[in-house]
Specification:
single chain, alpha/beta, 4-stranded mixed sheet
Length: 395
Amino acid sequence: MDVHTSQIMKSKDLGKAVKAAVAHVVPGHAPGAGVTTEDAAMQATATVFGAIQGHWLSACLGVMLQLRIADILVDHAASSSSHANAPAGPNGAAGAANDNASAAGDSTGMSIDQLAAACGATSPTASSHLYKVLRVLAQHEMLDEHPGKKFTPNAATVQLVQGEDPSLGHMASHLINPPKWDAWKVLPQAVQQGKTAFVLAHGMDVYEYGEAAEHTGYGEEFMKAMSYFTRHSLAGGATSLKDAYDWAGARVVLDVGGGRGELLSSAMSWAGPQCRGLLLDRQMVIDSIDIAGMFEAKGVTGAAQRLTLMSGDVRQPFPQQAQQAQVRFRAPHGESCGHSRQCFCMTGHSTAGLPLASPATASSTSHLDLNIAGSLVLPRAWWCATAHKYSLCFT
């Protein structure tokens, strides 16, 4: 084992040991039950150091994202793999030799000098500085390091690629890109002045910033980040959103701040051809929606006729057209409603704290069709609690 290989192993072991130690730190743990005052003080110190050093890793990850290191490594690995799978020559021997060479090259990855050149770090000392950053990221398993200061992509690296398809890389970059760092820098002043840090740093909010002609890259990154996050949310969990709600009965689904329709297109496909969709977002977003690519591709036939796109600001009162999504409650004792339905319009200016009909009014009818100025995608527990508040049952 050479010295450098030993250093890599020690570095990885140290990183794992630190993470294991931090995992056993219990913030706010009081002395007692075998924990001395000195132990508690050490735990508190470790907690503070964790907070101090937290941004170090984010900053290193920001370098990886801005220099597109993940894209470079994944492209290189794919290229090496394609060469390894190239057809053999007429006698087969040359092809086999090329396969072995490509496989070996792929296993050792790219050298730090190759990476520096590929990402435009051309200064004579750039390679050494880049290596220090990537070594930190390797300790935290964002990529893999090999002897000879070489790196290969791993599962995390693949997720950080920022291609045409929305990815975790877009989400990560959006959260720690330079405009966001600028906002963090003025956080103390923002707190003192009672202002939003991003507005204080840039003179405009995040939406206005993304809509500015000189910041088109920021706006596009934001949209891809939101699309990725929606896909990730739809895919994860023991119970998916598809299973948590009976979409078959939905006639109108409204998505407030619906982005490019990642969630609404899924909901409409689950609900079936009788469902209409309403999507409210800023005009810049509305203009970028690909109805065929997002809705029709998911099986929402006739999407252009069934979909209404509305320009608006989620922080402002919703357009009248957006107050159409219906949720039904029924009276608790199984009374027949006959024709005694009564509609109540929820005109809250946000999806939180929306006003409901008064208890007295609610008890005078067995069904309520509530027109919601907000999204149907609220936790079932919220609906159950709200129904119980007005002596109704959720259906």
